[in-house]
Automatic annotation (TrEMBL):
Phylogenetic classification of the source organism: Bacteria, Pseudomonadati, Bacteroidota, Sphingobacteriia, Sphingobacteriales
Origin species: Sphingobacterium daejeonense
Residue span, Apiosidase-like catalytic domain: 31-359
Protein name in the entry: DUF4038 domain-containing protein
PROSITE patterns xrefs: PROKAR_LIPOPROTEIN (PS51257)
Keywords: Signal
Ranges of residues in domain Putative collagen-binding: 363-455
Signal peptide region: 1-20
SUPFAM superfamilies linked to this entry: (Trans)glycosidases
Pfam families, alphabetized: Apiosidase (PF13204), Collagen_bind_2 (PF12904)
Amino acid sequence: MKIKISALIAFLLIFGCSNAQNLIQNVRISESGHSMEYENGKPFFWLGDTAWELFHRLKIEEIENYLDNRKEKGFNVIQCVVLAELDGVLVPNRYEHVPFLDNDPTRFNEDYFQLVDMVVKMAEKKGIYLAILPTWGDKVTLKYGGAGPVIFNEQNAFVYGELLGERYKGFNNIFWILGGDRPPADNDETWLSIYSPMAYGIDKGSGKKTLKSFHPGGFIWESSKMLQQEPWMDFNMIQSGHAKLDVPVWEFIKTDWNLKPSKPTMDAEPCYEDHPINPWNGWDPTKGYFRNWEVRRQIYRSVFAGGFGVTYGHHAIWQFFGPAYKAVNYPDRNWQAALDRPAAFQAGFLKDLILSRPSTNRIPAQALIKNQDTIENKNFMVAFTDNAKSYAMIYLPNNKSVKIYMKEFPSKRIKYSWFRPETGKIVRSKNIKTKGDLEFQVPDTNSKDWVLILDKIE
């Protein structure tokens, strides 16, 4: 029996989400070209969570509980997909609705899209942005696997984009993300003839109100390699992925940072918490899982290298794994049990740390570090400062020490503090005079990683 949700949605839209529109500010690219800000000029730090199957596998009550949990932890962006990866065209959502009539992307099934409508309004009311992929990449090409079916061509991609842009143009809490774990081109093949019309269709429908990007595959790494010069591409995304430990995401961020014209960049899919390490083609359990320390190392270093934000993910949550679904790549718990995993809290601590200082004018500052480990990525330290060099932060993914070239941070007196990423707490602060280069020893070698904060006093 099919379950209709139209009446429920109509009730909640009228009584639960009335006057919800414009409760959240639009986000724009800052003047530097490397960060984002609200329309009132205050800094916007993207702290995303990965919920690819949100519209496809959850009921509305579960969605609200999930959003509330993420908001409490400081997440302000949720990455989700209209046409989900796990057979999101042919397999109905939890209310037995598929997205289209006759699999035609220009003919919306209103019952399906009313759920999307409600989630957009619910998220807005909670102060949450949605980074929405119009489709997962397997609906564009099956070259890299997936359930498909391939339903897009140049003509219907534009119409589909226009319908989406028009439908949600009244909302400030949407980013549109093309792609979906696929490249825009590969050797002699290109799918830009589909992605670009879809992007321009969104622009036409929305009045080019919303910022757009492209979610690349983990083997392509950076969207910028092929899309930096595309007029519709507002900011870049990186996927450092789940194939190995300590992928040098700081190098990818550096590459994007130096491109012209300047566009913000971020790691939109680092290693998920509790994801098995490189599980493809048969998984060897001795490889283990990415746990909170491995996740912290990646998200901190991507942001400290110049990312305007970062997206966290949990392996059970992106797929909303539970008893009713076949497991994808060996999740070790269901999604409800994953909501309060350590790195989900620790990602929020990172956001609070960045926003504790001026953040729209952050710049990379690797020259500060005098004793960089150039052999093991696991120990690679990353630093940033601001244009005025009023403060600096250095992430130490180990329990060692850091030597600072003080000529890169000229000052007579500084306050230094140690921040513990595991707990989000400052554990030691002290004012000192500066003379020559300085070495700082971490306050407690039992903690695996630390952030050294330098604040200029004079």
